[in-house]
Amino acid sequence: MTQDELDGSVGYVLKRAQAALRAAMDAALREHGLTTPQYVCLERLDQRPGLSNAELARNAFVSRQSMNVVLRGLEEGGLVERPARAPHGRALPVRLTAEGRERLRRAHADVFEIERRMVGVLGPERVDPLRADLTRIAEDLGG
Fold first, then answer.
1. Given phi > 0 = left and psi -120 to 50 = alpha, else beta, which region is 63?
2. Which domains does the chain have, with CATH numbers?
């Protein structure tokens, strides 16, 4: 594949945009003492308290082992809590603490600004079609 073919590849351009988004989020979240996977974890727990490690891993696009590390850091930082024993089965439901909720609130404003910048270059009439197209692509590829 030539450089021109690579630069014109939709997959390459999509990965380039994803890498730029991740770098921007990492930089913004660093100011809040969070990583991007930690932020995603806090967001999901705010929306659905009690998710398990496996469910959080799927939502954050990381392995269960990596999510264990993410959760351990959040727990040590006082941002989430898990019971010592599972109420049923083996899954330990995770919940945000008050500090976790507050840290998420502060970080969310910066992440929202990145999202606003990202879609701002498109114009409002192109955002919904882009979201729909990307969703169809992900579903077709099994994601």
1. beta
2. 3-140 (1.10.10.10)
